[in-house]
């Protein structure tokens, strides 16, 4: 928390606006839309809810197909299943770790041949890095398939100077506790289509028709954000740019200290993009370090340091492994390789340099010790 949240929370309490909706929600939506440079925003209870709404607004139904990045958190694709639709997973490419334009093109060509285009494409911006939007947008435009940009991890990032989340028909951000700013739990749907956003507000509030009694013609959801949490969001948004700077500085320190080690490669930042560096991620080439991701994670765990694997691709998840998957090329599945070799380092905005050096030293020790042991044995 930044310290100013209590002011807005107090305002909500003082005015007794504790219900969903209220002045903080409206103000938060306005602030988010302004920040991203879009016509409007609808604040909801989670990023997952925002994806569910976006898919519903695009008319996704049982039996429809939706393309989705494979290298992501399960929440990107779960709403496809909520609607009884079928996900088709698209691999990543090495420059951004995000959706591969060549795999998307191949999937689109096959869909055209089968006379069944997807109803939508969900493009994820992993760990703050924007996908290759120009290429991806142009492929989707060619087939007139709408894009939902899952920017849950990339609030504050830019592509060609334009805010992440604004390249599709809809974009979503998450304010879950682990994201770059948080309302403890929450999300937002953004778009330039104000009619669609009006419909989103309606659906997110149980699709209650304007009538003197409770009248319902459509199935809705209980997805609106509470006025108290929106108060937290308003104040968090004011420190977003500071948070991005802090995360980028954390990345920079890791990079300075570790990038020179043979076999260590950091997640790239594509030219003309600006990543919020939500998490610092890197890959370890076992043939050069002689140390596996699991060995690094184990030695971190021993030091009480929490580090993680890169997301396990969704096409490998038992829940979703039966669905079709398009690799980057016939010979190369980039997301699988990143999962095998990738690691996310502790990256909290308030991390001290002392803590960061402890993480760095643990990684170095693990690699050096193994090296020493093997050279001495020889
Ligand atoms: C966090 C996250 C979500 C879901 O957001 P919630 O607010 O937790 O529902 C969706 N997609 C990605 C890529 C995420 O990291």
Can you offer a commentary on this structure?
The protein is of the alpha/beta class and 378 residues long. The chain folds into two domains: 5-239, 3-Layer(aba) Sandwich (Aspartate Aminotransferase, domain 2); 241-377, Alpha-Beta Complex (Aspartate Aminotransferase, domain 1). Helices cover 40% and strands 15% of the residues. It contains 13 helices and 15 strands. Strands 1-9-8-5-4-2-3-14 form an eight-stranded mixed beta sheet, sandwiched between helices. Strand 2 (65-69), helix 4 (78-82) and strand 3 form a beta-alpha-beta unit. Helix 5 (101-113) runs parallel beside helix 6 (133-142) and helix 11 crosses helix 13. The longest helix has 25 residues, at 353-377. The chain is globular. The N and C termini lie far apart (53 Å). Bound molecules: pyridoxal-5'-phosphate. Pyridoxal-5'-phosphate is lined by residues 46-48, 72-73, 75-76, 124, 150, 152-153, 174, 176, 187.
Q: Give the number of domains.
A: 2
Question: Architecture of the largest domain in CATH?
Answer: 3-Layer(aba) Sandwich
Mean pLDDT: 96
What name does the CATH topology of the largest domain carry? Aspartate Aminotransferase, domain 2
Extended strand count? 15
Give the biggest beta sheet: 8 strands, mixed
Which ligands, by name, code or SMILES, are bound?
A: pyridoxal-5'-phosphate
Which regions have little confidence, pLDDT < 50, spanning 5+ residues? none
Characteristics of this structure?
378 residues, alpha/beta, Aspartate Aminotransferase, domain 2, Aspartate Aminotransferase, domain 1, 8-stranded mixed sheet, 4-stranded antiparallel sheet, 13 helices, globular, binds pyridoxal-5'-phosphate
């Amino acid at each position: 928390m930044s310290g100013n949240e209590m002011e807005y929370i107090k305002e909500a309490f003082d005015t007794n606006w504790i219900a969903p909706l209220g002045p903080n929600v409206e103000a938060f939506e306005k602030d988010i839309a302004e920040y991203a440079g879009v016509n409007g925003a609808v604040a909801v209870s989670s990023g997952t809810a925002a994806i569910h709404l976006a898919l519903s607004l695009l008319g996704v139904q049982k039996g429809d197909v939706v393309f989705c990045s494979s290298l992501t958190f399960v929440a990107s694709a779960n709403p496809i299943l909520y609607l009884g639709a079928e996900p088709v997973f698209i691999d990543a490419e090495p420059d951004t770790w995000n959706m591969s334009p060549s795999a998307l093109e191949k999937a689109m060509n096959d869909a055209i041949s089968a006379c069944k285009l997807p109803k939508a494409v969900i493009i994820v911006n992993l760990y703050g890095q924007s996908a290759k939007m120009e290429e991806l947008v142009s492929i989707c435009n060619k087939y007139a398939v709408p894009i939902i940009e899952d920017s849950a991890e990339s609030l504050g990032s830019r592509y060609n100077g334009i805010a992440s989340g604004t390249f599709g028909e809809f974009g979503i951000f998450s304010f879950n506790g682990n994201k770059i700013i948080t309302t403890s739990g929450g999300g937002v749907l953004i778009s330039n289509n104000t009619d669609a956003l009006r419909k989103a507000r309606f659906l997110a509030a149980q699709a209650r028709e304007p009538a003197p009694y409770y009248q319902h013609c459509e199935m809705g959801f209980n997805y609106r954000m509470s006025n108290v949490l929106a108060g937290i969001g308003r104040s968090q948004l004011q420190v977003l740019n500071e948070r991005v700077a802090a995360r980028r500085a954390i990345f920079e320190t890791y990079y300075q200290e570790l990038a020179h080690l043979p076999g260590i490669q950091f997640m790239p930042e594509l030219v003309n993009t600006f990543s919020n560096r939500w998490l610092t991620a890197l890959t370890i080439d076992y043939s050069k370090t002689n140390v596996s991701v699991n060995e690094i994670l184990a030695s971190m765990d021993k030091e009480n340091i929490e580090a993680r694997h890169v997301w396990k691709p969704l096409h490998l998840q038992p829940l979703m492994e039966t669905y079709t998957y398009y690799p980057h090329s016939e010979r190369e599945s980039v997301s699988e390789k990143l999962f095998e070799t990738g690691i996310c380092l502790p990256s909290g905005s308030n991390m001290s340099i002392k803590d960061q050096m402890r993480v760095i030293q643990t990684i170095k020790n693990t690699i050096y010790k193994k090296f020493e042991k093997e050279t001495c044995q020889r």
